[in-house]
Amino acid sequence: MRIVRLLVFVFGLIAVLLNSAVLAETYPAKPVRLIVTYPPAGSSDLMGRILGQKLAELWGQPVIVENKPGAAGSIGMDYAAHQPPDGYSFLIGNLGPVTVNPLLSKVPYDVERDFVPVSLIATGPNVLVVNPKTPVKTLGELIAYARANPGKLNFGSGGPGSVAHLSGEMLKSLAHVDIVHVPYKGGILSVNDLIAGHVQMVFSDALPVMQHIRAGTLRALAITSPERSPLVPDVPTCVESGVPGLVAVNWWGVLLPAGTPKAIADKFYADLVKVMHDPDVKEKFAQLGVEAVSGTPEQFAAYMRSETVKYAKLVKEANIHAE
């Protein structure tokens, strides 16, 4: 009887594996949905549409973008977590909803439990910009000025827990300066107020400030990436400028619902890597102020864990709360 049961189990397992392999060979056989956790026309949405178009060309199947904004990206994350795990829906998740939101408030999803990591697809540094009327030209000068004028410098951000906010809190902690956070309902609003002189500094995504840097209406002091960016090759990193540890980049990656068959996840990963190596994708991502990248699912999972550890420490030390 034991032998019979064992044979039934073995043949059942073989059938499951063969079925998964057949599914992967024919995948995708119908349109695929791409869930974006932010509204149309934002960085995540634009990246998603570039990626979706290239995957659709490769697959010969439409990729339909679904925008599910709200609660700083948490609504879209929860929605994606509850989609069927069949490979026909995937998510572009980024630093905020994947890593930061769960640190600031209770969210209805658990990234490690509810998703399968596929690959990191993009990283983008923040550029520290100041109003030209602020009497500093380097990060070192800014730190000296802030120490001489405690509590008098304001830094704007797109809201509590945004990369801009986290970068500012890192600067406060690492450089031991007293600067005041001014949250806005979006990064563009903080940049507009910086130009108007209502705040003195902003850690901004590259895209909204590049034209102002070129026009001289904003002055770039440093970037938050580990290395210099081709977008602003003459601007030093914060580390180069004397603040070791001030590395804070926004990032985006592809996730599938937990339970997606491994054969399909592997096929998805192989196709995604092909797309991310496409020179046209790299160029279009660069125009958005980000670098197109790729890596293994294991590398992406490890990266998300390390980001969680880093920002959990910062959130606790800086006493950051969601508003």
Brief account:
This protein is α/β, with parallel strands linked by helices and 323 residues long. It is built from 12 helices and 10 strands. Strands 1, 2, 3, 4, 5, 6, 7, 8, 9 and 10 form a 10-stranded mixed β-sheet that branches.
Helix proportion: 40-55%
Record field, number of beta strands: 10
- Uncertain ranges: none
The SSE string, one letter per element, is: HEHEHEHHEHEHEHEHEEHHEH
> What class do helices, strands and sheet pairing give?
alpha/beta
The CATH topology annotation of one domain reads as D-Maltodextrin-Binding Protein, domain 2
Write down the Rg: 22 Å
Topology:
Layout (H helix, E strand, L loop, with lengths): L1 H25 L5 E5 L6 H17 L3 E5 L6 H8 L7 E6 H10 L6 H4 E16 L8 H10 L4 E5 L5 H13 L3 E5 L3 H10 L4 E5 H10 L3 E5 L25 E9 L4 H15 L2 H9 L3 E2 L4 H22 L5
Parallel strand pairs: 1-2, 1-3, 5-6, 5-7
Antiparallel strand pairs: 3-9, 4-7, 4-8, 4-9, 4-10
Helix pairs in contact: 1-10, 2-10, 4-12, 7-12
What characteristics describe this protein?
single chain, 323 residues, alpha/beta, D-Maltodextrin-Binding Protein, domain 2, ten-stranded mixed beta sheet, 47% helix, elongated
